[in-house]
Amino acid sequence: MTSPTSHSIIRTEGLSKTYPGADAPAVNSLDLTVEQGEIFGLLGPNGAGKTTTAGMLTTRVIPTSGRAIVAGVDVVTHPAKAKQSIGVVSQTNTLDRQLNVWENLYFHGRLFGMGAAESRATADQLLEQFQLAKWAKASVYALSGGMAQRLMVARSIFHRPAVLFMDEPTAGLDPQSRLALWDILRTLNAAGQTILLTTHYMEEADQLCHRVAIMDHGRILALDTPAGLKRSVGADSIVLIKAEGDHDALAAALSAALPDVTKIRTVDQGLEMHVRAADRILARAIAAAEAAGFDVADISLTEPTLETVFINLTGKELRD
After folding, report:
1. pLDDT tens per residue, range 225-245
2. Are residues 223 and 40 in contact, defined by beta-carbon separation less than 8 angstroms?
3. Rounded-to-integer distance, Cα 52 and Cα 66, Å
4. Are 308 and 253 in contact (CB under 8 A)?
5. What is the SS3 string spanning the chain?
6. How many CB atoms lie within 10 A of CB 134?
7. What b/e string do you get for 139-154 counting C-beta neighbours within 10 Å, with b at 16 or more?
């Protein structure tokens, strides 16, 4: 990934959206800055406010209050001008079924005021870049999910937007197509493309983003680099231990015997321990559990993840 510059390309001030009849705002007083040249992630569960935020920034959703500036343009006051500076890849397939693969690109360029010769050349170049050239004259119905997504990304950058917005871009894709799309986004970013990505996939945010804002209930709960967010957990390792019996009693025994445990919570059929300086922690955890009369059925060691951060902040699983 390239390193972002210090120039802000997205800025929101008190940005809010309350839908008619809703009990609470979908987005609540959002203050956010995205720097030019970075991949910025909005991470959170369904209903967190990610898609509404992206909708307001791309002029598709009118804010209830607040301001949003994208590439120097107020998206509410000047939506038509703002659209010239943004590219959008939505969750759903928005390709024109009446046009073939090449035409979906060519006419997009013409729509944005590009001449016929430039649009033809750009369409040809992008089909090569996105490995779709042999499908140029094919119906979009012939494309797999991953290929259709690549075509939508190619179309979204056709007019060289200042910011590319991607709303859950890999939802529904198979693992191979997801990794291929990640590579495309890294390549675009390396060439200077600013990308704002909404996702509920932890690994996607961790792998792609320079900075991540964790959202829930329309608010940003934490914002940092993925590494910084994971450091905020205050643990070097996460231990999952499964054993039959009273989990509260087991947690008390482990806490008493293991001073480097910073937090314990109950999970399915076991306990999750946050541990600092975890020297020989698995052996010591097993010994402590057995000394307290528990038979350990399974034990594993992992590093903190963005899901760990989210659970610490909200008390619920990120995938809920």
Report:
1. 999 999 888 888 899 999 988
2. no
3. 14
4. no
5. CCCCCCCEEEEEEEEEECCCCCCCCCEEEEEEEEECCCEEEEECCCCCCHHHHHHHHCCCCCCCEEEEEECCEECCCCHHHHHCCEEEECCCCCCCCCCEHHHHHHHHHHHCCCCHHHHHHHHHHHHHHCCCHHHCCCEHHHCCHHHHHHHHHHHHCCCCCCEEEEECCCCCCCHHHHHHHHHHHHHHHHCCCEEEEEECCHHHHHHHCCEEEEEECCEEEEEECHHHHHHCCCCCEEEEEEECCCHHHHHHHHHHHCCCEEEEEEECCEEEEEECCCCCHHHHHHHHHHHCCCCEEEEEEECCCHHHHHHHHHCCCCCC
6. 9
7. ebeebeebbbbbbbbb
CATH match of 234-303 with 3.30.70.980: yes
Task: Write the CATH number of the domain with boundaries 8-95+143-225.
Answer: 3.40.50.300
What digits encode the pLDDT tens for the residues 275-302? Answer: 987 788 899 999 999 999 999 999 998 8
Single-letter code of the amino acid located at 188: L
Q: What's the predicted TM-score (pTM) here?
A: 0.86
How do residues 11-25 score in pLDDT, each as one tens digit?
999 999 999 999 999
Nearest to 54 by CA among 88, 94, 7, 92: 88
Domain boundaries, the chain: 8-95+143-225, 234-303
Measured distance CA(58)–CA(301) in Å, rounded: 42
